[in-house]
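Onboarding guide, step 5: your first structure request.
Type a short instruction followed by the sequence, for example:

Predict the 3D structure of this protein.
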Amino acid sequence: MRQFVEETIRPRIQFDGGDIRFVEYDGEQLVVSMEADCSRCPAVGRIKTWLEKQIASSLDIQCTVVQKLKKPYYWA
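The system replies with structure tokens like these:
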């Protein structure tokens, strides 16, 4: 799962100015950190749904994605 997120999903997110980092996967739940432009994007909920669909279609795994938003350094 880490490899899929880092090598397949991350470049697509980075193309739009965001970033995603693998945090953990327990077999049922994937936890990712949404960074850069993703941390303040109102469409971050759609990214979660898109990511779940990508995992299901590419890896044939059903899991729930949990997003942790990393605040930019200038948000105190």
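Each response can be followed by summary notes, for example: The radius of gyration is 12 Å.
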